Amino acid sequence: xxxxxxxxxxxxxxxxxxxxxxxxxxxxxxxxxxxxxxxxxxxxxxxxxxxxxxxxxxxxxxxxxxxxxxxxxxxxxxxxxxxxxxxxxxxxxxxxxxxxxxxxxxxxxxxxxxxxxxxxxxxxxxxxxxxxxxxxxxxxxxxxxxxxxxxxxxxxxxxxxxxxxxxxxxxxx
Length: 173
Known about the structure:
Layout: E1 5-6, E2 9-11, H1 12-18, E3 28-33, E4 39-44, E5 48-50, H2 51-58, E6 66-72, E7 77-80, E8 85-87, E9 92-99, E10 104-108, E11 111-115, E12 119-121, H3 122-128, E13 136-141, E14 147-150, E15 155-157, E16 164-170
Parallel strand pairs: 2-3, 3-9, 10-16
Antiparallel strand pairs: 1-2, 3-4, 5-8, 6-7, 6-9, 10-11, 12-15, 13-14, 13-16
């Protein structure tokens, strides 16, 4: 049996890791995380869902007060509006949901990311960058070009004016 199928449920995260397209018919196991990148599984019977229906499966209520992002196979986040349809078979690794009415833009290693929470931790930046948290650290670039190291548990307020720019790099040994 293919290890992407567990008890007849297609695991999307495993399929992305294996680099193959999920089967055409569900059910599908989908991971949905929060602002701290803590993930829990939901089961979606069909491949096509709206943002509203996916949020409904998570029991996040009211769905209108949440924003949902697809975590794409390459690690980038893409907003899924409530009435927008997404095909779970098209490179979606997992989802992240926030109770928020705003979306914040940030840069990590020159790549643009959208984020649904006012705060982001150094550990979350490392996860978004798919960096090794044991070997790499996070630096925040200031307006004057200076950089300062951000601890894993340190929270950065994204609601301040400007786009926060982060860089990850190997820690000195």
